[in-house]
Amino acid sequence: MVSRLICALLIILAVTGAPGAASADTAPGQMGNAQGLPEMFGTWTVAKVLCKGCQADATPEVGSKIVIGNGGFQDPFSVMCSAGVSYPNRELGWETAQKLFGLPPSADGLAPSGGNVVDARLDCGGGPVARVLFLGGGRAIYLAEAEDYLIVRK
Amino acid sequence: MGDSATSSKLSTGDRIAAAAIVVWQTKQAATYASPPQSDQAFDCSYFVWLAIKAVNPLFKRESSASIATDKLQFQAFSGPPQPGDIVYFPPGPVPYEVKKGNKSSFPGHVAIMLSANQFVGMQSNGVGKVTVPDLWWWGRPKQFFRYIGPVQ
Predict the structure, then answer these.
(1) N or C end of chain B, less CB within 10 A?
(2) What is B2-147's CATH topology?
């Protein structure tokens, strides 16, 4: 058991110390705060789906609920998690977020009044299973796979 | 000496899976970019490259399609997958999207299996773990590959 742990540690050192692997890990690239912000917590309901090529009347995600709490989250698009939960997050400018996540033009109207969004991961068991952009005012964008952006409201 | 003796107790697949978990945990802020731009903006095959480098530092990054055809380093097999195996989704329509009226062809994808029902990789919204069967991924046509290249 101890030898397996030592080996795992060696692998971790090998990966994080690999050429090029750590060099880009500058502060702006980190998700600073692992604790969730109060605005994240609550029940979020999918109100609309922004998607390329899909039909407006064929968005089964609408009405789905994502529950985010201090000790766990229930996300029908990833997992129900009650252990090892954290919400690493960072603040991003709206335009940066649009560019980084390829938000479609139809998301323009969601620009937050303060100009910034909170880019948060839903972590379960030590790493992320989902990503959400919190816009303030009880609005958020759940980044689903590919070209689907779920607009959720609290 | 002791280190290599310890390493030899883990299978190649276990070592790749362990490395993939580290990438998953340490690259949380990264965003998807193809071709890769840096260790904070990269694509799925870059993620796989980072993981395989743990067992072969000389491994050169290959595109997802290349991994699927590189018989010298990757062996195709029928499931169930084991930790460290690679799952490859060929380009094409996604059944979940087709149901929604979107018949576009989506890019191919590669990721590292952690078990028969979980994989980690760089998906379009960032690095992430996917528990399968899920809505989006597992309905796609897919193939499994095992790394059989050099190991250090």
Answers:
(1) N
(2) endopeptidase fold (from Nostoc punctiforme) (3.90.1720)
Q: Mutate which of A2, A10, A11, A77 to disrupt the B interface (most B C-beta within 10 Å)?
A: A11
Q: Which of residues 55-114 of B touch A (CB under 8 A)?
A: 57, 94, 97, 99-104, 106
CA atoms of B71 and B126, how far apart (whole Å): 29
Interface ipTM above 0.85? yes
Q: Where are the beta strands (DSSP E) in B7-141?
A: 31-32, 41-42, 74-77, 86-89, 109-115, 118-123, 126-131
Cα atoms in the Cβ-side hemisphere of radius 13 Å centred on A64? 16
- Closest by alpha carbon to A135, among A44, A51, A59? A44
- Distance from C-alpha of B62 to C-alpha of B86, rounded to nearest angstrom: 13
Q: Which residues of chain B does A22 touch, with a Cβ-Cβ cutoff of 8 Å?
A: 39
Dump pLDDT digits (tens) for B3-62. 444 555 899 999 999 999 999 999 999 999 999 999 999 999 999 999 999 999 999 999
Q: In this complex, is the C-beta atom of B40 within 8 Å of any C-beta atom belonging to chain A?
A: yes
Tokens of A34: 């692992």
Domain ranges in chain B?
A: 2-147
User: Is B28–A127 a contact, with Cβ atoms under 8 angstroms apart?
Assistant: yes
